[in-house]
Design a protein that fits this description.
Blueprint lengths: L2 H11 L6 H11 L2 H6 L4 H4 L5 H6 L3 H17 L3 E4 L7 H4 L7 E6 L7 E6 L6 H17 L3 E5 L5 H11 L3 E5 L13 H7 L3 E5 L9 H13 L3 E4 L7 H11 L3 E4 L10 H8 L4 E2 L3 H8 L2 H11 L12 H12 L3 E2 H8 L3 H13 L3 E4 L3 E4 L2
Parallel strand pairs: 3-4, 3-7, 4-5, 5-6, 7-8, 8-9
Antiparallel strand pairs: 1-2, 2-6, 10-12, 11-12
Helix pairs in contact: 1-6, 8-9, 11-12
């Protein structure tokens, strides 16, 4: 995407006079931020139901454009990637949500469209019980589903424990921040954040010089919920950010889970209520979660790879399977879109063949959606 379109998207996001969903509707209707800005003086002609408030808001586009230019300059100097809504790097699960941001700022190395994405959320006052749950869950999940991106919010308590457990167990982990990428809140989590830049990343919808205000934490929760396949509430009081994220997860028709706690325990009240009201499914371990999500195939694949299945145990390969092996032998680590060209196998059939070869321990998928031949 060209820089002018990114600048135009940045300028649009700076205008706060109308609801984000209304901006998304206009953006989708006209097809680009550039088209929105070009038609800003006669929106009623291209979008008859455009509100007067929206039209008025666009009058401030010149000031917003100056701020957009400053922001983009900062991003380019600090290795921050602006990701517009229609970019392939944008979290595709989040894109399905009506109130998804038009643009995200990202610093890190993990793909935001991993095979599996799980958000782990909860109270800032995580107890020893909660810490133990997180450590055991993430460790066991690594054995069952090795290709999971762990998402949380970098806050005290459950969030930071989720990030640290992910790092310790070899998972990529992304923090969704409630402020810009020019600083970090809370500052004491900077060592963890620095490690995540090499094993995950930091993501936000907010410009630099944006304070970590309370309302921004609520806004960022929709990204935490929207970019994941499932949200897991570990511990929560009756009210709190974790409860908001769980509600958003349900609103987005995503799977929502909660760990139960002792009756009367303050930081289990929220979890127990969601389970009682059947708005979150009860889990007690990673195995419960994997079975509920139907991700058992990941466990089977991991077991096959751990056992180091020898290729000679599978002497009979189809012609197409052998073709894939020959291509990867000559040029390893290819994405499926490239493989379908180099092998001349339709992508629908290629997906099934790649899975079979993974199950046989002949190849494995690696970071970046590539397939690696095990030599």
């Amino acid at each position: 995407m060209n820089m002018q379109e990114i600048l135009n998207i940045l300028a649009l996001t700076r205008i706060n006079y109308f609801h984000l969903a209304g901006l998304r509707q206009l953006y989708d209707e006209l097809g680009s931020a550039t088209a929105v800005i070009e038609n800003r003086h006669h929106l009623q002609d291209v979008l008859p139901d455009a509100s007067p408030r929206l039209t008025e808001g666009l009058k401030g586009i010149d000031d917003a454009m100056k701020r957009a230019e400053t922001e983009l300059e900062y991003d380019m100097k600090n290795d921050i990637l602006p990701i517009p809504l229609h970019d392939s790097n944008y979290p595709q699960r989040l894109k399905e949500c009506d109130d998804a941001p038009l643009l995200l700022f990202y610093k890190g190395n993990a793909p935001l469209n991993a095979k599996r994405v799980v958000s782990i959320v909860g109270t800032r006052k995580c107890t020893t019980y909660g810490q133990d749950l997180i450590q055991r869950f993430v460790k066991d999940l690594r054995q069952l589903c090795p290709q999971v991106l762990i998402v949380s919010g970098m806050a005290y308590g459950v969030d930071i424990n989720a990030h640290r457990s992910a790092l310790e167990n070899g998972f990529d982990t992304v923090a969704v921040l409630a402020h810009g990428l020019d600083y970090l809140y809370p500052p004491r989590h900077k060592p963890t954040a620095d490690a995540m830049l090499h094993q995950g990343g930091l993501l936000t919808e907010f410009f630099t010089h944006t304070n970590a205000d309370k309302v921004n934490f609520v806004r960022r929760n929709r990204i935490v919920a929207g970019m994941a396949d499932a949200t897991i509430l570990v511990e929560s009081a009756a009210h709190g950010g974790g409860m908001i994220t769980a509600r958003l997860s349900r609103d987005y028709n995503r799977d929502t889970f909660a760990f139960p706690g002792a009756v009367g325990a303050k930081y289990s009240e929220g979890c127990n209520r969601l389970i009682r009201e059947q708005t979150a499914s009860l889990i007690t371990c990673a195995q419960d979660f994997v079975e509920a999500m139907g991700w058992q195939e990941d466990s089977q694949l991991q077991q096959a790879q751990q056992q180091g299945i020898e290729r000679q145990l599978f002497p009979t390969l189809s012609a197409d399977e052998q073709k894939i092996i020959n291509v990867l032998s000559a040029d390893n680590d290819q994405q499926i879109n490239r493989l379908t060209v180099t092998t001349n196998i339709p992508i629908s059939r290629l997906s099934a063949l790649l899975f079979e070869l993974e199950m046989k321990g002949i190849l494995r998928s690696v970071v970046g959606g590539k397939y690696h031949l095990i030599k």
